[in-house]
Amino acid sequence: MQGVTGTPFRAVDVDASQRGGVLTSRAFFPPSTRTARAPPCCAGGFVRSRLLCVNLPAPPPNVDVSLNAVDPNGTTRERYQEHLANPSCSACHTLMDPSVSDSSTFDAVGRYRDTELGQPIDATGTLFSPIDTLEDFRFDGVLRSRST
Question: Is 30 helix (H, G, I), strand (E, B) or coil?
C-alpha cells in the first residue's frame, strides 16, 4: 500500500469498494492460492471446506485433470471455464470456482486491480449455499451483492 512503510503493524485506511473482510486479504488464504494466476478452485475449495465446513467430494476415479487447449494468455476466468462446462468437472467446480470469482481482482501480493491482461475483470459470481433453506449469494465484486 502506498505511503505505508516500516515494520510495525498498524491500522490503515482502505477503499471500502475494494476491501472488506477476510476474503479480500490474500494473506488469509493458503499459499497455493496466492500465485498470480492460481486456479479459482484452490481458493474456492478453501472457502467451502474451511469457512463453510462443507466436505467436497473427491474427484471421480480416473478423471482427466488436464484442461483442453487453454489459452495461456487468457484471463483467469477464461482459462478455467472448462471446469464449469465439462460435466465430469462441473458438479464440484460449480460449488468452488464461482464462489471466489472476484479473487482475480487481486494480484499475487494482494494489490487490487480492475484489469487482468488488459481486459476488465468480471468479478461477478455466486456463493452457493451449503444449506437448502438459505438462498445463494450472488455478488459483483468485493462483497457487493447483486440482485437475482
Answer: coil
Dihedral sign, Cα of residue 4, residue 114, residue 97, residue 99: positive
Spell out the alpha helix ranges (H) of 39-117: 40-46, 76-79, 81-85, 87-96
- pLDDT, tens only, 51-92: 888 888 888 787 776 666 667 777 878 877 777 888 878 888
Domain boundaries of the chain, sorted by first residue: 22-56+66-140
CA–CA distance, 45 with 38 (Å, rounded to integer):
12
End-to-end CA distance of the chain: 34
β-bridge mates for residue 125, sequence order: 139
Answer whether 93's CB lies under 8 Å from 84's CB. yes
pTM: 0.66
Which DSSP helix (H) or strand (E) runs through 58?
none
Going by C-alpha positions, the residue among 44, 18, 48 that lies closest to residue 143 is 18
Residue closest to 98 by CA, chosen among 137, 59, 66: 137
How far apart (Å, rounded) are the C-alpha atoms in residues 42 and 29?
9
The mean per-residue pLDDT over the stretch 95-111 comes to 71
